[in-house]
């Protein structure tokens, strides 16, 4: 959960997730929809999909227990080199190096490694430095120290060098370049897209949903049928085109039901929701489609923007 998400955001989800899935057996026995639903709101859903796959592999190949070595851990979906090192070092006491975001920053400053830390050659150097810091029998202590130092003292923008226990050994601090490391790539303009979504209701109040493709952003989640407005299109025209392309039906747009603004890692959207009826053809009933009723809303994991749109519509309907 801490991959790509801050501790303060994760805390509430972590406790809730463990209440629902207290061990690896529970995750493996659950459906993907159940895992995605418990993960809903935290983003980067590939992590949840990998967790579900990983639990099944751990149960099948390792009898419900994580293997101790980096080599074995790397065979499990969602576990990269640094995560494997952290598990091996912290959980099993192995002398494995780590290079998470905190460790990367600490090591780069400690050895005055400048430039883009994600470049292959620089990454290789950082791994070599991290490996060199691990004393025999001290893998767990080293991993925890690097993580804690980066989280509490060697922070990104204003490092607390006066509090640092290894400040005398820090090459970047001695050279006066500690605030310039790590180098931050200049951010360009953040793209914005208008997304249009159709809310179809059946006679019993169910909402028609489509499951998104398993890979990519928001993969495996459910959402209202939607599409992106192209240049020169009106919102209503974009919705009619998108629904015909995706569902093969014509629609009558009844009214707008809500607008949600949302930011993803690399772009922003404004989601426009419309209450619609089918005017030509019929909605498909096949794998990847479903009707969600209010009492079972928790069974379907929706992207946060679509969940907010649903909440807006429900508030409007109740008034």
Give a written overview of the molecule:
With 319 residues, the protein is α+β, with helices and mostly antiparallel strands. It contains 12 helices and 7 strands.
CATH superfamily name of the largest domain?
A: Nucleoside Triphosphate Pyrophosphohydrolase
Strand elements, count? 7
Q: Please, what is the average pLDDT? A: 92
**CATH class division of the largest domain:** Alpha Beta
Q: What number of structural domains do the residues give?
A: 3
Briefly note the CATH topology name of the largest domain.
Nucleoside Triphosphate Pyrophosphohydrolase
* Lateral arrangement of strands in the main beta sheet: 4-1-6-5
Q: Specify the CATH architecture of the largest domain.
A: Alpha-Beta Complex
Largest pleated sheet = 4 strands, mixed
Q: Radius of gyration from the CA trace?
A: 24 Å
Count up the helices: 12
Helix/strand class: alpha+beta
Order of H and E elements: HHHHHHHHHHEEEEHEEEH
- Percent of residues in helical segments? 40-55%
**Unreliable sequence segments:** none
Distance between the termini: 38 Å
Looking at the structure, what is the overall shape? elongated
Strand percent estimate: 15-25%
């Amino acid at each position: 959960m801490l991959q790509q998400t801050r501790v303060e955001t994760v805390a509430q989800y972590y406790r809730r997730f463990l209440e629902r899935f207290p061990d690896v057996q529970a995750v493996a026995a659950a459906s993907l929809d159940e895992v995605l639903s418990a993960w809903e709101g935290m983003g980067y859903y590939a992590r949840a999909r990998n967790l579900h796959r990983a639990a099944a592999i751990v149960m099948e190949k390792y009898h419900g227990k994580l293997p101790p070595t980096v080599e074995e851990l790397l065979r499990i979906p969602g576990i990269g080199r640094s995560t494997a090192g952290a598990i091996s070092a912290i959980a099993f006491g192995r002398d494995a190096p780590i290079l998470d975001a905190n460790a990367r920053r600490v090591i780069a400053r400690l050895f005055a490694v400048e430039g883009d830390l994600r470049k292959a050659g620089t990454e290789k150097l950082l791994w070599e430095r991290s490996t060199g810091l691990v004393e025999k029998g001290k893998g767990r202590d080293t991993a925890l120290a690097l993580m804690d130092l980066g989280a509490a003292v060697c922070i990104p923008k204003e490092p607390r060098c006066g509090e640092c226990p290894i400040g005398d050994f820090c090459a970047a601090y001695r050279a006066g370049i500690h605030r310039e490391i790590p180098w931050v790539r200049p951010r360009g303009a953040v793209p914005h897209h208008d997304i249009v979504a159709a809310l179809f209701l059946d006679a019993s109040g169910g909402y028609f949903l489509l499951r998104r493709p398993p890979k990519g952003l928001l993969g495996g989640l459910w959402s209202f049928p939607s599409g992106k407005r192209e240049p020169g299109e009106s919102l209503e025209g974009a919705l009619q085109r998108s629904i015909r392309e995706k569902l093969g039906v014509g629609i009558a747009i009844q009214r707008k039901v809500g607008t949600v603004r949302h930011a993803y890692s690399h772009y922003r959207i404004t989601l426009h929701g419309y209450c619609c009826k089918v005017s030509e053809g019929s909605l498909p009933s096949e794998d990847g489609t479903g009707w969600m009723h209010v009492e079972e809303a928790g069974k379907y994991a929706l992207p946060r923007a679509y969940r907010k749109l649903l909440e807006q519509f429900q508030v409007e309907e109740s008034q």
